[in-house]
Write a structure and sequence with these properties.
Distance between the termini of chain A: 55 Å
Radius of gyration of chain B: 30 Å
Number of strands of chain B: 4
CATH architecture of one domain in chain A: Orthogonal Bundle
Mean pLDDT of chain A: 89
Mean pLDDT of chain B: 83
Distance between the termini of chain B: 90 Å
Strand content of chain A: under 5%
Order of helices and strands of chain A: HHH
Low-confidence stretches of chain A: none
Helix content of chain B: over 70%
Shape of chain B: globular
Shape of chain A: elongated
Radius of gyration of chain A: 17 Å
Strand content of chain B: under 5%
Oligomer: heterodimer
Helix content of chain A: over 70%
Number of helices of chain A: 3
Chain lengths: ~100, ~675
Amino acid sequence: MIPLFYYLALSAIIFSIGLFGFMTQRSGIRMLMCVELMLNAANINLVAFSSYNGDLTGQVFALYSIALAAAEAAIGFAILMSIYRVRDMIDLNKINVLRW
Amino acid sequence: MAIEDMAFLIPVLPALAFVLTFFLGKKLPNGGAIIPIIAIFTSFVISLMITLNLLQNPEQVVSQSYNWFAILNVGVLIDPLAAVMLSMVSFVSLLIHIYAVGYMSHDKAQPRYFAETALFTAAMLGVVLSDNILQFFICWELVGLCSYLLIGFWFEKPSAASAAKKAFLTTRVGDVMFLAGIILLFADIFRIFNGSIPEGVYVLRFDEIFTHIPEIAALNTQIFGFEVSHLTIITLLFFGGAVGKSGQFPLHVWLPDAMEGPTTVSALIHAATMVTAGVYLVARTFPMFLAAPYSLLVVAYLGAFTALFAATMGLVMNDIKRVLAFSTISQLGYMMLGLGMGAVIGVTAVGDSLFHLINHAFFKALLFLCAGSVIHAVGTQDIRQMGGVRKVMPITFATMLIASLALAGFGIPGTSIGVSGFFSKDPIIEAAYLFGESTENWVPYLFSIVAALLTSIYIFRLIFMTFTGKPRTNYGGHESPSVMTVPLMILGVLALVFGALTKTGFGKFLEETFANNFVNMDIHALAEIGKYHLASHGAGSEPLLILWMPVIVAIAGLLISYLIYGMRIIDMSSIVSRKNPIYKLLYNRYYQNAIFTQFLAVKVIYEGLALAGRAIDRGFDWTVYLIGHIFTEASDGLRLLQTGVVQNYATSVVTGVSLLIILVKLILEVF
């Protein structure tokens, strides 16, 4: 059986990649993908702990989380699509009409 | 159903008539005048039946109370005092309503007129039968509102609108004092109960108030270094309300201007409804006044002064209604003087004063309705443009003459021959004599005698100028229709005989008010609290000359008027001119209007209070603006943190979470 540590290490690496991408990328779609990465890092944690403890609650939780992530992604992409139609770009730093 | 159970209908019926006339009046003939007439007639019948019942069984006082909320109640109290007032108010109001059908027949706003007068009557009836001071005050304010509406009935005339405003504001000064008195009274009773009122005790009921008179009188406050009894303060505040409503000096200024309304409204205000409310307030709370040191003296002096003061102005007015207005103020002064004489004659004073009030209501309503009849026919209010109206309007002339005789007080002392004003004014003047005898202070007596002389002069000046001689201008005119003359004749008969018929019974009946109904009403004990020395013998035992004095001055006044205005033997043109300073002073009403507008309104209120208010307002504004400014400035700086760049937010989140984790870790390490 693979030790828990490996799972946690994998999760940490994926989370860091996601965070790094989120902080550095400008394209909205890439940022959204990075958010998905961070989310899934957390999912890995949930499933790993669940399996390690022999308790199914964590896995059920992960399923919920995936479903929510799908919904969130759908909405996020839809918003980005509309922005693209209006502005011809999806650079989130330039979408600032509501700023002071 | 006993008649007592219908007592509450007395004010309710006219109030209903107000609603009905207001909404349905347009569809009925004469602006729906029939509705208030029927309602007030029913009220009159109920009042009269209760009065007659009380005459036979003085102890069967109608007294009903219903819980309103907490320690306050609504209720009906009809004792002899209230009963005679109710009968008089509803009766005079009824006649004025009937008369108004003729008088207002050319007016387009008839429904509004009849609705408002019905409400006016309802409010006054409500004042009279209130059994607690709060309900009294509410109806009192309603009377004030109706007077405003009715004085400003022809509101498209600027003078009427401003007269209405003036009446409202002037009486408001008194009303505020009245309210302050009620609040103080409430606080004192609350203190006497130590804050815990037993179940079923209504603190502002008159009988409840009267049982606490000794305790309230014992409470003292320091004012300018003098020990003043709370009861004195409360009663003087009440009297302040009465001064406003009853047009006593210095708040009488609204009454002459109230002539801007229809003449029938003037008759209502001056005879039946509004101005008598002040006198009634003092009469109603008379036990309090009797137990309050100095209060009755203030009432007496101010009343006597007003009687004389107003009479002097009545001498020179040229507007027929203005003369009558000053006459009303003067007669109200007599009523107040009569009440103030309680200082020597105890509760008899209430009987004397109310007797004059009732008689005055009859002859003053008659005078105003006659004046209205003349104005209706001649089309002017200036008596200099009249003259010879007697030939055109014989009935009006006859009734007006009766009313004038009643006002001047003609009669033979010691007999039952005389007009009503004679029997009621004489006891007041005699009481003033008694007061002078026992206190060596003759001012009230002198004032009242001189005022009686002036009364006779001004009213016969009015009669001679209006009705005798030749017409001074070319007016048309005809006798008024019978709907107007019949009320005149009814009132004329009453002005002639009412005094003689009731002169002995009336006072006795009213004294029952304080003998039967209220607990522990020992008049002598109350007067002792108030430090008044009641005279041992009643009025009527004065020297013969004193008894005849009022009649002598009345006849003298008639003769003087006759010589000047009837025969024109004495040429007045040198005196009646703008050059004569005294005439000018009187004609300009002692410049009181000027003082009030120029000095009080402009200097004190506008330049003093308003400007001070503006400064204070600015101060508040500045504070409010400062607080607002701090927050705008602060947020102006802080909003720069919101860059709108998502990465910045993410950075702060990550930094924050990282710091938090480090912190938690550190804490766990340390402990």
